[in-house]
Design goal:
Layout lengths: L15 H4 L12 H4 L16 H17 L1 H11 L4 E7 L2 E6 L6 H27 L5 H25 L5 H8 L4 E3 L12 H17 L30
Antiparallel strand pairs: 1-2, 1-3
Helix pairs in contact: 3-6, 4-5, 4-6, 5-8, 6-8
């Protein structure tokens, strides 16, 4: 004798969870928008963007281009820096060199001219880098700062090379006793070498904050079978209020 068959429960007694259970047809493919969002399978750094290798290449090119600008800084420093007057004298058959104006501030002006020019070129280089690549990036900013420091070192050496001779005793002998001549260019405050990268970083940060592109608010797309009712309840769930 066979067992009696149990009739299936009425439709109203099925749970809401069973009513919204997705079909077991394998994993659901993500929509095309999710592949390009920050929540793609590859994490925040998905397929959009040049990639780390391209960013490093752009940073290297930026560093080289900014460093070449140090030639302009060196020429401007040599041309605009105030001259420090020296005078040669002979004492007991030995040559000595003295400042002609002991109270003059030309030596301070030499360092100040280099610092002001470096600050200006730092702002110009930051503007140029921002206009070329508005998206920015950490490697690009680091390359710009490194290029500014190398450009300052290059400008310092070029200015010294273009300036008066470094051997002041030989220069005093060549012009004669009591004749005024210019002292060689000298950067006494080595902290001025940081003016270019500091200015470039500050200006680039300000331009990026004011005019840089804004990242869209990426949120993960809702699951096609996620409950859409109020307070996360499924539409078929009974109202307990």
């Amino acid at each position: 004798m066979s067992a009696p068959l149990t009739p299936p429960p009425p439709p109203h007694e099925q749970s809401a969870h069973d009513a919204w259970r997705p079909p077991s047809a394998g994993p659901v493919a993500a929509p095309p928008e999710a592949a390009h969002s920050g929540y793609a399978a590859h994490g925040w750094y998905g397929q959009d963007g040049p990639g780390m290798r391209a960013e490093l290449r752009e940073a290297a090119v930026t560093a080289v281009a900014v460093t070449v600008g140090g030639v302009l800084l060196g020429v401007l420093w040599w041309w605009l820096a105030p001259r420090v007057p020296l005078v040669g004298a002979v004492a007991d058959g030995n040559w000595a060199v003295y400042l002609k104006d002991t109270e003059g501030e030309q030596a301070v002006g030499v360092d100040g001219t280099f610092s002001l020019l470096a600050l200006a070129l730092g702002a110009v280089s930051a503007l140029a880098v921002f206009l070329v690549r508005r998206r920015g990036g950490v490697p690009l900013v680091v390359g710009m700062a490194v290029g500014g420091l190398l450009g300052s070192l290059l400008a310092w050496r070029i200015g010294v090379w273009l300036g008066p001779a470094q051997d002041v005793i030989a220069h005093a002998r060549s012009v004669g006793k009591g004749v005024t001549f210019d002292a060689p260019l000298k950067l006494s405050a080595k902290g001025a070498l940081l003016a270019w990268p500091f200015s470039a970083l500050i200006v680039h940060l300000g331009l990026t904050a004011l005019f840089g592109p804004r990242d869209p608010d990426d949120f993960p797309p809702p699951h096609p079978y996620a409950p859409q009712g109020p307070y996360g309840a499924s539409p078929g769930a009974p109202d307990k209020s």
